[in-house]
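Hi all, posting the design record for the shared folder.

TITLE: backbone redesign
STEP: 1 of 1
STRUCTURE INPUT:
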């Protein structure tokens, strides 16, 4: 499956839709420190298991950084 992540084309080893949660793990992100937008819609992390990613979807992943 081909998706676009932060403007870069990426390939996921799946011929079927997979959950956003699985996708995040496959891409190597820590789910506790990111915000994810799928096709220009921010997805609440509580909904990641129920949101499925399809071929051609566009994801924007933003890391949250704390500091002071």
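Okay, here is what came back for every position:
SEQUENCE:
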């Amino acid at each position: 499956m081909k998706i676009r992540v932060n403007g870069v084309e990426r390939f996921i080893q799946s011929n079927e839709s997979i959950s956003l949660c699985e996708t995040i793990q496959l891409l190597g992100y820590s789910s506790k420190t990111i915000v994810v937008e799928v096709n220009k819609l921010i997805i609440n992390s509580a909904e990641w298991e129920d949101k499925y990613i399809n071929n051609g979807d566009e994801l924007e992943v933003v890391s949250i950084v704390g500091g002071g």
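COMMENT: The radius of gyration is 12 Å.
Let me know if anyone wants the other runs.
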